[in-house]
Structures are given as structure tokens and as C-alpha cells.
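Help! Submission page says 'invalid entity' but I think these are all valid:
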Amino acid sequence: MYVAVKGGERAIENAHRLLAHERRGDRDVPEVSLAQISEQLSLGVDRVMTEGSLYDRELASLAIKQARGDMIEAIFLVRAFRATLPRFGATEPVDTGRMQVRRRISSTFKDIPGGQILGPTFDYTHRLLDPQLAEGFAPELPATSDAPAGAMPRVTDILGRDGLIESSPRPDDDAPVGDLTREPLSFPADRDLRLQNLARADEGFLLALGYSSQRGYGRTHPFAGEIRLGEVEVEFLAEDVGFAVPLGSITLTECQMVNQFKGSATEGPCFTRGYGLAFGHCERKVMSMALVDRSLRARELGEEVLAPSQDEEFVMSHSDNVQATGFVEHLKLPHYVDFQSELGLLRKLRQEFAEAEASPPLREAAE
Amino acid sequence: MLTTEESGQQAKRKAAMAVLAHSGAVEIAGRLAAISLPDHENLREPENGLVMVRGRTGGDGAPFNLGEATVSRAAVRLSTGEVGFGYALGRDRQKAQMIALCDALIQSADHAGTIEANVLAPLRAAIAAAQNRKAAETAATRVDFYTMVRGEG
């Protein structure tokens, strides 16, 4: 046994050494820097921050480099890192209404106060590969024009003024905010926990669930009420300082989904809502999140729970790609003993089968 | 309750912290290097940690935990007794320490003017310029439906 253990150790060490070599690739090709990853693969960095559930561009860039571009591996690295630092507390809730907006669109109203602002978007590109980018390419500087002063109200606030849409659940500042990094999941889960789970959930999983709801598995009749991207200020009530201290700003993407109405004996019919919010620029993620958030409100809104996207236990238990990859990939680890017992059982069953074949039961023989 | 003077001082400190938190450590260090600083010591050694960033359901509703962010913090005391605190997103301990030092200095009648004129004012101007540039680039992508219709008619 001892010899086998030593052999395994050396093989592992050499495998990691080979991995480092492969990660570096052809040594004649310049090495990528964290700044290059952060600046030029910025949406990948945003995804790692969002699903790693840690806002730190430099760490997310390092994780992508270390993981050789494997996003889930990078997310895993970021999650592991966050366990090494103490938590000072929770910030004041960010105010996305006061965002310094870089993109803001609505598919429900053409003429929204503040306007439709396209910002840096892939939308309306032709999705043709651009050979110019294959070599050094210096893009034109961005166009500029006078920025209009004036607020940019949320589309849901505009609808809300006429009572056409349900209002957000009222804040109760004394109520504790659920935190799934501190307490294990239990069901039924309230919306604060569901949103936290969805915010760090795998983008592909949420995309598929949101898509399934559009295709009829728990239809919610959604409209993209508003999508906005930009910077919001973060403040932290530091007890030693005695007031809410500004920490700087973070980039967020927000999606307000407007869905088919509900009404009751006491309230007139109004549109319902789904909400998506995530770190960085990630529209696909927040749109999918908002679709699934709305689907998961089935119980609250008295809808029949029939489809996967409406089943909170199914969604929340399978949305985390670090957990999911841990369980799927653990199948690679040695299962020699488990397999030996299965093998033993199978041999016994086969032996019984062979014996039964050799001496058929009496009743059959009589026929 | 805070007195008017106290809340005025608090608003001033908070505004200064916002400017410093939005500035790069290199820029702050460059500004601080150009002025003579009084003796001071670290009251709390600069350290890194996390804060849980909260959002609101629907943007304006009940809070929920969105995800964490790295934060650096420090506390500094001047030899004359003023205590300053520094907090900033990221893991740059030196930046937190410089913010704490500035926070202590603006509470000192002897240094507040110098810090405002030589550190905060130029950093504030640089932040405003960057924000204005971004706003102008963003504004150029605003869709003007009215002009489009008139052009076709």
C-alpha cells in the first residue's frame, strides 16, 4: 500500500507540472497579463465575478488565467478564495435608480423619459467574424454628444404611477436578510434567498430554464420592461466610523421583466414582475434571471406549479455550477471499493442466472 | 442627534471619502507626496476583507444579498489626536491607509485647507472629467426616433 501512495504523489506532482506547462502554451507566444484579460476579455471577467459571487476584477482575471479560460473552474477558484477573507458586514442596499447609466433600453415603451440608450452592445451587429481583429487594430475613438441633464426613471416606476404594475415587496428594515452562504438552503425559500441563489447561478442553466418558460413550460408572457447597465455607488455603515462610508462604485446590469397580469377580489388586475441583477455587464444572465424569478413566484401568485422553472427546489438545488461540477466530477475520483462491491454483486447475480439456465425449473420441464 | 456643525463635518468627511475611494492609489499617493504631512500612526493596521453587497428586489423593494466584494480598510491617528478611517473597494491596503490619513487631516483645522486644495480638488476634477466623457460617449448612442421619422418623411 505504501508504495502505491508514494507513486500517486509523484504522478500528481508531475501532472500539475505538466498542467502549468500546457497552461503557458507555446513559450514563443507572449504571456497574457491580468490587465489584458480584465480589459479585453471583460465580459468573461464579469461572468466569473457574478457566478463566483465576488466583485474583484483582478482576482477574477487571475482565476481565468489560472483556469486556462475554463469559466467554471475559474468560478470555483474565486469561490474558494472568498473563504479566506473575513467579512466586515453588509453594504447599504445599492440604489439602481441613481445609476450612472451607460446603457438603458426598454422594449415596452419607445419614448421613455431619458430615452433609449444603446451603449456598448452586440445588438444590431451582423455577427460576421471581423478579420481586422486578427491583427493589431486600433478602433476609432467613441463619438460624443451633449449629455442631457435629468433623471432616468425606471420603466417600472412609470407604470407604477398609474397602478398598472404591482409594486416591489415593501422593505422591512428590521427583517433579517436571508444569506445562503451562512445557512443551508431549506424550502420553501423566500424571494430574498431565491434572488441570491439566482444571482450566482450558472448562466447556461438559467438561460435554458428561462427559454423553457418562453416555449410553454410555465408561460409567463414576459416583456423586457427595462435593461440598464452602469455604475452604482456602494456605501457601508462602518460602526467604527459612525456613518455610511462610500466604498466606491461597482458596475451592475439590471433587468425589469414585465409579465402578464394578476388580479384578485380586492385588487384590480395589474402587470406582475420578475427581477434580475448581477455584477458587471451580463444582459443574458439578468434577463434569464428575471424570467426564472417570475416563474418561481408561481406559489405566491396562486399559479399551478407544473414546469421545471416554477419548481424552486429543483431550480435552487441545481443552479450552482460549483456544486454541480463537484458532484458530477467527483465520479473521476477513485471508487475502487464501491466498484469492487458492485462487481462482486454482479458476479453473484450472473452465477445465479447461469445456474438457473443450466437446470430449468420443474414446471417448465413438465411442459 | 448630531448638531448642525457635526453633521456638516460628517458630510464633508463623507464627500472626501467618496472622492478618494473613486481615485486610484497612484493618483492619491502622488498628491500626498507633494505636501508635508504631520506625524501619524496606524490605529488599525490596513487589512483586507469582504462586504456583502445588497440589492433591492425590483430595484426599490426589500433587500437581498447580491454577492460579496473585496474591501480594504485602515485607521490612522495624527500626533495631534485626530482619528481618520479609510475604506475602499478592492485589496489595496495602501489606498485604504491613505484615505484614513486624509480623513484625519481634514478633521484638523491646520491641514483641512491644504488637503482640500492639493488633494481633493484635483482628484474631484479628474473624476468629473472622466464621468463627463463617459456620459458624452453614452449620449451619442441615444436613439432619436423623432429625427429618424422626420428624415424619412
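Support: the input was valid. A stray whitespace character was the problem, and the output above is from the cleaned input. Chain A has two domains: 9-82, 96-120+149-167+185-324.
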